[in-house]
Amino acid sequence: MSVRSEIIGCGSYLPERILTNDELAEDLDTSDEWIYSRTGIKQRHIVADGELTSDLAFKAASNAVEHADVDAANIDLVILATATPDKTFPATATKVQSMLGLKNGAAFDVQAVCSGFIYGLSIADNFIKTGQAKTAIVIGAETFTKLVDWEDRSTCVLFGDGAGAVVLRAFEDTQAADPSDKHSNKHRGILSTHLHSDGNHVELLQANGGPASTGTVGKVEMEGREVFRHAVQNLSSIVDEALEANNLNYEDVDWLVPHQANKRIIDSTAKKLKMPTDRVVVTVDKHANTSAASIPLALDVAVKDGRIQRGDLVLMEAMGSGFTWGAALVGW
Ligand code: UT7
């Protein structure tokens, strides 16, 4: 018998204001045609003045707690994946913990940029497996548009704001695995998580400020083509790693829920997995790249519209600045 974790609910929140490509093209030397054909993005949501990462995180988390139908008081771990915290310190997670009315356990931020949600999920899964937490909430929330240089057309068109969250709970895995039964524990809960990083490529994608360097938060800088090349390579190897670790094949995966940075990167990973496009959750057209929020946002869309069903096997993968990359294989 072992203790494992399963996702029992999800939620998300998007700011009201939608900024379309056409609106962007009014003040910037760009076009809907360029943005859509290179990235698959049509629009992005933007926070209102005074709306903070903690506000988005709180709304997504509340939504997930309601969907999971748990007593929030039982949550003993709050992990917030974000590269756009409200303040340099303390961790925005502690503010969200307080907004949720929680007093138990630990709350902290995780900084792995676009891979942050997968990192947070992996940490929460390990906390639960070791008995250090029983009910965890993992949130990905970003106000990434605060970090973009609105005069740099090569980056500002790519990002959006939003938040997504999942609630994880411990369960005792007592059932003997039955590979023929999708609803057996073989496919129940988080099967495995896989994390990598390689700090040799920091300059390819970064915010060029920080408390210890410039004393400012900085703006996003990216060598798009190089990042694209690394993303395709790293995502391809991480999906292999996740499947091999579980003795599963591409055909066993019901849904691919990728980080939403660029439709062309998503397509190349789906092709590698031989996943038909109708088994890939794509939200980049509506949300753009919301960094750590993108996977839980996409997951919530596909769960709430009924595509992802109980017993389905879901593969999530992400790659981001650092570089960091990771995957999680999850039985829904
Ligand atoms: O979430 C973290 C991971 N991030 C990513 O995965 C992003 C990965 N990279 C990409 O998605 C792509 O590299 C981009 C979408 C950022 C760029 O696409 P690209 O096909 O690599 O274009 P490029 O950077 O090579 O630029 C091609 C041309 C350039 O003009 P010249 O030099 O050929 O005359 C750019 O100046 O497109 C120009 N360009 C634009 N034109 C109109 C760059 N941005 C724009 C724009 N509108 N917004």
Major sheet size, sense and barrel closure:
5 strands, mixed
Mean pLDDT: 95
The ordered H/E elements are EEHHEHEHEHEHEEEEHEHHHEE
Question: What structural class do the secondary elements suggest?
Answer: alpha/beta
The top level CATH class name of the largest domain: Alpha Beta
Bound molecules: oxa(dethia)-CoA
State the CATH superfamily name of the largest domain.
Thiolase/Chalcone synthase
Looking at the overall shape, the CATH architecture of the largest domain is 3-Layer(aba) Sandwich
Determine the CATH topology of the largest domain. Answer: Peroxisomal Thiolase, Chain A, domain 1
Beta-strand content estimate: 25-35%
Regions with little confidence, pLDDT below 50 for 5+ residues: none
Radius of gyration: 19 Å
**Number of DSSP helices?**
10
First-to-last CA distance = 20 Å
Helix content: 25-40%
Commentary on this structure:
The protein folds into two domains: 2-173, Thiolase/Chalcone synthase (Peroxisomal Thiolase, Chain A, domain 1, 3-Layer(aba) Sandwich); 185-331, Peroxisomal Thiolase, Chain A, domain 1 (3-Layer(aba) Sandwich). The protein has ten helices and 13 strands. It has helices at residues 21-27, 32-39, 53-68, 92-99, 116-129, 153-156, 224-245, 263-272, 284-287, 294-304, and strands at 2-13, 17-20, 43-46, 77-81, 106-110, 135-143, 161-173, 189-197, 205-207, 220-222, 255-258, 313-320, 324-331. The strands form four sheets. Strands 1-7-6-4-5 form a five-stranded mixed beta sheet, with helices on both faces. Strands 8-13-12-11 form a four-stranded mixed beta sheet, sandwiched between helices. Oxa(dethia)-CoA binds at residues 30, 34-35, 38-39, 114, 153-154, 157, 224-225, 227-228, 231, 261-262, 265, 289, 320. Oxa(dethia)-CoA is lined by residues 30, 34-35, 38-39, 114, 153-154, 157, 224-225, 227-228, 231, 261-262, 265, 289, 320.
